[in-house]
Amino acid sequence: MSSNPLRDFGLAIGYFTRLPAPTALNWRAEDMSAALKYFPLIGFVVGGLALAVYHAATLLGLPHDLAVGLSVAASVCITGGLHEDGLADAADGLGGGMDAEQCLHIMRDSRIGSFGALALILCLWLKLSALSHLSAVWLGPVLLAGHGVSRWAALCLAFRLPYLRGEGKAKSVLERASWRDGAWSAGLTAPSLFWLPAAAWWALLPAAAVGWWFYRLLRRRLQGYTGDCLGAMQQLTELGFYIAAVALARG
Fold first, then answer.
1. Which of 1, 39, 97, 106 has the smallest number of Cβ neighbours within 10 A?
2. pLDDT score, position 2
3. How far apart, in whole angstroms, are the C-alpha atoms of residue 39 and residue 186?
4. What is the pLDDT of residues 56-83, one digit of tens each?
C-alpha cells in the first residue's frame, strides 16, 4: 500500500476526475486502495472549482441562475460525468430489471434507456433549480459540503455491501475498502463543512435519509452494489442535501 499522502491524493484526482495528475499513471490496485479514502476530499476540489466558475460568471455580469448553471456544468466536466453515468446506468438497471441478474445485465449495457434518461434530466434539473434558489451567502458553503458529503456517502456503500462485479479495474480496489478508510475519509470530509451556516447542518439528516433509502433498495434488489451504484449514491445524496438546504434557507 502506498504510504505517500500526496501521491495517494494525486491518484484519487486522476481516478475520479479529468484533472491532470501524473501520479495516476500506471497505478496498481494496492495503490488505489490507499487513495480511496481521499474520495470525499475530491468533492471539496470539485465543489471549489465549480464555485470558482460561479464567481467568475457573476463577475462577468451574468445573472445568478445562469452562473449556477455554468458551475454545475463545470462540475460535470471536471469529473467527466462519471457519477452521472453511474446514476443513469443504475436507474436503467433498477427500473427495468425484474431480478438482480437482469438488473446487472442492463447496467452493463452502455446504451442509455428511458429510466436512465429520466433520472439524468430530473437530477440535473432539480440540482439547478435548488442551487438557483440559494443566495450567494449560502451557495458556496452548500456547494462545497454537498460534493464532499455525497462522496463520503458513496464510500459508505462500499463498506456496507459486497461488490457484485467479478471483473473490471474497480473490483480489486473496492474489495479492499475498509471501515478504517471510511473513518479516515470522514475526517477528510470535514473541510467541506467548515463554512456551512449553522442552520444548514440540518440538511445532513435528509441527505443521510436518502442514502439510507438507496442502500436499503440495493440490499433488497441486488444484495450488493456496483460502481454505477456508487455514482448513483453520490448524485442522489448530493441532490437531497441541496433540496434540504433550500428548505432550511427559506424557512
1. 1
2. 45
3. 10
4. 999 999 999 999 999 999 999 999 999 9
What are the cell numbers at 82? 462519471
81: left (phi over 0), alpha (psi -120 to 50) or beta: left
At a CB cut-off of 8 Å and minimum separation 6, what does 150 contact? 43, 207, 233, 234, 235, 236, 237, 238, 241
The reported pTM is 0.91
Residue 141 CA from chain centroid, whole number: 16
Distance CA 99, CA 71 (A): 38
Share of the chain above pLDDT 70, in %: 87
Q: Tell me, rounded to whole angstroms, the distance of Cα 61 from its chain centroid.
A: 30
Query: Among 143, 164, 147, 152, which Cα is nearest to 90's?
Result: 164
> CA 15, 94, 98 angle in degrees (round to 5)?
140
**Which residue intervals of the chain are DSSP H helices?**
5-16, 29-35, 39-59, 64-79, 82-96, 100-108, 114-132, 136-160, 169-174, 179-189, 204-221, 227-250
Domain ranges of the chain: 5-250
CA distance 141 to 197: 8
DSSP assignments along 187-233, one per residue: HHHGGGGTT--GGGGGGHHHHHHHHHHHHHHHHHHTSSB-HHHHHHH
